[in-house]
Design goal:
Layout (H helix, E strand, L loop, with lengths): L2 H23 L2 H7 L2 H23 L5 H25 L8 H20 L3
Helix pairs in contact: 1-3, 3-4, 4-5
C-alpha cells in the first residue's frame, strides 16, 4: 500500500464531498444565477471518480502507480478546479483551461494502460 497516495485519495475524496455539499447548499443561488449548476456538478463528479481511482491505486501493487496518481491529481486540480472557478465566477476564459485537465486524466489512464501491458 502506498500511504502517500492513500492520503491524497482521502483528501481528494473528502474535498469532493465537501465541495459537492457546498455547491448544493451554499452556492446554489450563485450557480443558478450564473447558469452553471450543471458545470459544477460535472466538476464534482469527475473529482470524486478520480479520487476513487486514487484510492484503488493506493491499495494495490499497480504498475506506474506514482505517475498515474500524479496525472490524475493534476487532472482533478486543473479540470475540476477550472470548472469550480468557472461556475462561481462565470469567467468563461476558464473553460479554455479545462481540456488541459481532461488531457491529464486521459494521460493518467493511458499511462496506467501501457504500464499494465508492458512486458517485464
Amino acid at each position: 500500500m502506498n500511504k502517500k497516495i492513500l492520503a491524497l485519495a482521502a483528501l481528494a475524496g473528502g474535498l469532493a464531498v465537501a465541495l459537492g455539499a457546498f455547491g448544493a447548499h451554499g452556492l446554489q443561488e450563485v450557480l443558478l444565477a450564473n447558469g452553471r449548476a450543471d458545470t459544477y456538478h460535472t466538476a464534482v463528479t469527475y473529482h470524486m471518480f478520480h479520487a476513487l481511482a486514487l484510492l484503488v491505486l493506493a491499495v494495490g501493487e499497480i504498475p506506474g502507480q506514482k505517475i498515474t496518481a500524479g496525472l490524475l491529481t493534476g487532472g482533478i486540480l486543473v479540470f475540476s478546479g477550472s470548472l469550480y472557478l468557472l461556475s462561481v465566477t462565470n469567467l468563461t476564459w476558464l473553460g479554455a483551461i479545462t481540456p488541459l485537465g481532461g488531457f491529464m486524466f486521459m494521460a493518467g489512464w493511458g499511462w496506467l494502460f501501457f504500464q499494465s501491458i508492458k512486458k517485464n
